[in-house]
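call fold(seq) -> tokens
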Amino acid sequence: MAQYEATSDQIEQLTAQDTGLSDAVKEAIAQLSAAADKTVAVVTGTVSSSNADAVVTGQGTTLNNATFNQATAIVVDSTSGNATAQSQEAVTADLVNSSVNLEITNNANNTVNISGATGGGVKAGDGNNEVTVTDGKDASVELGNGNNKVSIDGEQGAENVSLTVGDGNNNVSVQNATNTSITMGSDSGTGRQTLTLSQDTGTTVEIKGKGNNELTLDNSTDASVTTGDGDDLMNLQGAVSGTFKTGAGNLEMTLDQTAQEQAEISVDAGEGFDMLRLLGNAVKHLFQFVNGKFHMHSADVTMEGVNVVSVDANQDNKITLDQDSITVLATNEEDSLVAKLYKVALGRQAIDGEDGWGNSTLGGINWWMNEFEKAADNDGSTEHLVRSFLNCDEFHNKYDSMSNEEYVNTLFDNLGSTDADMKAEYLSKLNSGRLDREEVAWQLADSDEAVKLLGADGENYVIDGFTTESNS
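ret:
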């Protein structure tokens, strides 16, 4: 084994002596010169151990279960084998053109750059690690429960990279890579996972736990994404394709396309209150129910378990899209009635405001749907809930100052009905005391006229949004 040791001010001379180092490794060694008073070992041959502060290996070196007790920086070049860095300090490792399996045993905030790797990779503890994989093939990255940041950039050929990160609030980005495998979190974890996929192909993602996750896919093709039971935000941009399956949490998915782009996705939204938001060219597609699933024509998009879609419904079992609306997909009479009460009685979309990421929140309609369904399951009666829904400040502030005629006219305008005879009948019953105002709103929302105008599709009700006050 050839070994040289030098302080940082001797590195330039040392690298000139060792012709077995690539230009990339020499550049990395030069960067180590900033670490003053560090002892650097440059080794070739077969290495079993080294106590240097920084370790650099030359071409053809084999790390035979080498242990670097004091290593704070490791650079390898065309090197194979296994190595352990046991430094309590943060480790900076540049794995260049290598197949080394490096284990970092501390819980510090380590930095690892993998470039041109074929096999090998890194395993690190619970610190806030930062790992970059550039053009690596078959590399493996395993990180602990810290808030890790990982970038996989395959512009020149990253393939078959495997990534596992623990329960922290991790941030992962994948760009121009092929067949990346990603596992984030654990079954009991609550960390927030942030994932961005761009121009990649064949990425497989499994996000575990109950954390609230945020995923962005930009022209990502053949993706397979499974998430846990948290509330997820998914933003799909461009020509995205793949399958998506979420757990018991609430899903808000946005599909945004230009005129030339087509999405080919299948979504199983699972339990929870789920919403699909359509932007850009996506609003020009045609939707309908097919075998109990929500299907988008002009592209291959199937939605299952989605409660709300930001589109505009009509009556022929299909949905033509309007960017400025919300449509509720109700699979039972109770959900349908809640959606129609928002439309007819309150005259607005079922939006409460915006969350911290600028997305519309729908907690109100979610809560009311759950309450109506529970009441129907218990005793079959929802009258008390209808009156509770209508006995709110919003309803009273909107209508208490109106005459009976103004009130009835406004409800019919909310519905979009021009049936003069029906309007006169409700006004007569209201004036005579046969119905009170809450009963008029309830009966109108649950009428055949509402079903006709707002749209229904057999067992699946499509309740039109209110487009003049859009928040989507």
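Residues 333-469 form a domain with the serine acetyltransferase, domain 1 fold (CATH 1.10.3130).
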